[in-house]
Fold this sequence. Notes:
heterodimer, A: mainly alpha
Amino acid sequence: xxxxxxxxxxxLVAASATAAVAVRDPVRQALVLSLLxxxxxxxxxxxxxxxxxxxxxAVGTALTPLLLTLAVRKVHRxxxxxxxxxxxxxxxxxxxxxxxxxxxxxx
Amino acid sequence: MNGWLTAAAALLAGGVxxxxxxxxxxxxxxxxxxxxxxxxxxxxxxxxxxxxxxRSSYVDVALVLAVLGPAGTLVYARLLAEDLRAxxxxxRAGTWAAVVLTPLVVVPLCVAAGPGRAALKLLxxxxxxxxxxxxxxxxxxxxxxxxxxxxxxxxxxxx
Lengths: 107, 159
């Protein structure tokens, strides 16, 4: 009967992983990714591996989405900071990065 | 499969499933609230699993999640402040879920554990969950109200 729990958590992991792929905006992807970390932690607990679940919680629910959102913020802010005299040669490349991100976000 | 495990399975299927839908669709404010609710539900499910498998060490996972979950939501409230300012979260369903569900799960677990250190730990986790959810919900609502772009969740909650 314990298989029911394993099946439920496996289905949740599969569904959240699919949702993480299907959502296109990186910021929203970070939110789904943290939910994927949660469901994976639940799966590891059900599979009697609480130590793996602990590390998965620390990495999956907190660190990975934090890094993702920080990176997205940095990329979005670049076009605004190029006027402060630090731009130089990199202005063109950062500008295109910002535009690409903006296009992806607008989808 | 005993009653505790059945309750955990029901909580995972009936609670985390809908929050997955909430996180994957809709505006950012609903996604953040759904993600916060999902941490609460998984934490409670882990507590039930610990009792169901009769392994008290599994409670540590729930303790870590009770600390990390609201902290993660505060990070989102800080980093998604611009989106939340455009459309702040309105409903209080997440907070009510925390206030109602946590005692429903923690009190029977404390009764099953009996008086002692284990029950104290469970009560601590329950208190952390309720307090963390209220702080996170306040920060999310406050992130929409603040005028300054760099305002942190703590300042936003005060304002």
